Amino acid sequence: MIEVFPDQESLSRATAELFAAEAGRAEAAHGRFAVLLAGGETPRRTYELLAEEPLRHRVPWGRVHIFWGDERCVPPEDPRSNVRMARRALLDRVPVPAGQIHPIAGDLPPRQAAAAYEAALRAFFGPELPRFDLVLLGLGADGHTASLFPCSLALDERERWTAVTQRANEEIKRITVTAPLLNRAALVVFLVTGAEKAAVLQEVLESSPEPHRHPAQLVKPVHGAVRWLVDRAAARLLRPGL
Ligand code: 6PG
What we know:
Elements: E1 2-5, H1 8-30, E2 33-37, H2 44-50, E3 64-68, E4 70-72, H3 82-89, H4 110-125, E5 134-137, E6 162-165, E7 174-177, H5 179-182, E8 187-192, H6 198-206, E9 225-231
Parallel strand pairs: 1-9, 2-3, 2-5, 5-8, 8-9
Antiparallel strand pairs: 4-7, 6-7
């Protein structure tokens, strides 16, 4: 399902509303809301809106459990950190109990960080593959999502829930969740804005599946839904009525 919004602000507002609605639904259904946050720039405004009225009081923050889809292997205060972005935009401004926030430790050696994060996931969800109520994902101009980059070995990972990856021409490593975990989600929402994403969005949505070239095409929840929330600039090349 693809929804096109006039601009980033209206998309962010709709995403924040969706987050609040899903949080309420999950809490009513099973007493908690487990969400996987996206990194990068696109979700920042959504997070800010969730920290402000009227949505701030609509979300049952005491029942919310926060995880991340990926993190850059940088210290917590590094401006590139996805955890830092979400803390400043949202988590430092709402009453989620500290023990319900599960950051990826970007300052640990990468393999240790991946192992520690998988242990945190297992501690919370148990031995079964985690089923998140909501997964937020972005889309990179190269077709990546989370930190699952084109031609990465992590794309074929079917056992582990986390992996160490590295973006081409980027000196730092990254920690990412793997496709099996994403595909257990109840609902995956991709957030895509800006003209620079128009070409890749068209390829991901309209070209034949080539997940090693476009890792976002790996995301097909087995018992869940995928929704694409895109702005008009990013949707520019999509077939009408797609
Ligand atoms: C990251 C994200 C990554 C991001 C896309 C889009 O750590 O960078 O997990 O997958 O969602 O690269 O990034 P923008 O939202 O900044 O365009």
